[in-house]
Design a protein that fits this description.
about 400 residues; 5-stranded parallel beta sheet; DUF4935 domain-containing protein; alpha/beta; 7-stranded antiparallel beta sheet; DUF4935; flat; about 45% helix; 2 domains
């Protein structure tokens, strides 16, 4: 088990190569990667505090503008702050890298006792005449110790660059040295992420042709299609695509769409490939731009047309296997296509007529149209709702006729 302190995750961030390597180690199953409950709450709290400071500043700015303007002005209503939502967002974001190990009541009690008595890793400031600090550090330390004691079959790697409170792993003050009794061979304290990564992942050479084969395999492309469609459906809202009333690439423009019928994914480009050997297998991570296209239901103008979008991801895959086992480590939102994306879209896949849809595409289109009717209820404009309902019924009739 790899257990990290707050400072390690804060330093590496969510989008760094170090974070991707941790995701890889966790995904491949070489080791579990986790943080104590207190670490996750510290990370979330840091962002929530920053958010609330910015929110108050925005409120003050709006109020100052209103006071300085000699006439009545309309300003955006900020509403109430949502720190709980911010905290949950960051818990979910860091949850893509680490699991959370629980902290027992006894560990919390011991941490409070140590702070009250200024016992390591807690301390008293100004010679003990003022505040005592370190409760959260003690919770983090004791959570890692507790995990190691409860899992005697595992080696626990504790990583923290906070040498001021936890030391550098060479020696420990009382009572931290007592905490480690019986754990000397199974509790390894490191001060950098590089120290633990080098134990599990050795750099390897990359073969561009092997990378391309893995990324263009039917399994990889199917995974990308399903992953993006799942994300778009979960959002239950429209998204930006490039559309054409003819073949995609001719007379194109951007539009909001509800979704695709039988979408197809193709590889656009890839960059920043890193290869590692973990155990007996080689794994790669790469930043990949995918192009996803198909017949889409368009909001304005109302209709069906060939459409496509681009999606950039950081992926993990096995380049030397018939089954690349591609996994999306992180991704950005999909975007409309750019000019350079059109040349990767095979022209023969574009459908000019709705009746050319096969059975599976018709089912997918029906699902889009049902979602469209639900979505149309959110429009205040009665004419928009009427147009969406009309399109749904018209296309359903066309499908029934064919």
């Amino acid at each position: 088990m790899i257990i990290m302190d707050t400072c390690i995750l804060r330093e590496c961030g969510l989008g760094s190569s170090s974070a991707d390597l941790l995701r890889t180690i966790r995904q491949v199953g070489i080791e579990r990667v986790a943080v104590p409950w207190m670490v996750m709450e510290e990370l979330a709290a840091q962002q929530a505090v920053k958010y609330q400071q910015k929110f108050r500043a925005a409120e003050d700015a709006v109020r100052a503008l209103q006071q300085a303007t000699p006439w009545s002005i309309r300003t955006m209503l900020l509403g109430n702050p949502a720190p709980d939502r911010v905290r949950q967002h960051w818990r979910d974001a860091y949850g893509t890298i680490v699991d959370v190990i629980p902290t027992s009541e006894s560990a919390l009690r011991e941490a409070a006792f140590r702070e009250a008595n200024a016992l390591a890793p807690c301390k008293a400031s100004d010679g003990g005449k003022s505040a005592k600090t370190g409760f959260r550090d003690a919770v983090i330390w004791l959570s890692a110790i507790e995990y190691a004691k409860e899992h005697p079959e595992e080696v626990t790697y504790f990583i923290s660059s906070n040498t001021r409170d936890f030391g550098d792993g060479s020696s420990y003050p009382f009572p931290m040295n007592q905490d480690l009794r019986g754990l000397a061979e199974r509790f390894i304290h490191l001060t950098t992420l590089d120290g633990v990564v080098s134990r599990f992942a050795q750099p390897a050479e990359t073969d561009e042709d092997a990378v391309r084969r893995a990324l263009t395999s039917s399994d990889s492309l199917q995974i990308i299609t399903e992953e993006l469609m799942g994300q778009l459906q979960a959002r239950r809202t429209s998204f930006q695509c490039t559309i054409s009333w003819g073949r995609l690439g001719d007379d194109v423009k951007r539009a909001s769409v509800f979704g695709f019928a039988s979408p197809v994914s193709v590889l656009g480009s890839f960059r920043d490939v890193d290869a590692y050997r973990m155990g007996e297998h080689e794994w790669c991570t790469a930043t990949v731009r995918w192009v996803i296209y198909g017949t889409a239901t368009i909001i304005a103008p109302i209709g069906l047309a060939p459409a496509g979008c681009a999606w950039e991801t950081r992926v993990l895959f096995n380049p030397s296997s018939d089954d690349p086992r591609l996994t999306v480590l992180r991704s950005s939102n999909s975007t409309a296509l750019e000019n350079g994306d059109f040349n990767v879209v095979p022209a023969e896949h574009w459908l000019d007529e709705t009746e050319d849809l096969d059975g599976g595409s018709r089912i997918a289109l029906e699902r889009q149209l049902r979602n469209m009717l639900v979505f149309s209820n959110s429009f205040e404009n009665r004419q928009v709702r009427k147009s969406l309902s009309w399109l749904r019924n018209a296309v359903r009739h066309e499908l029934d006729e064919n």
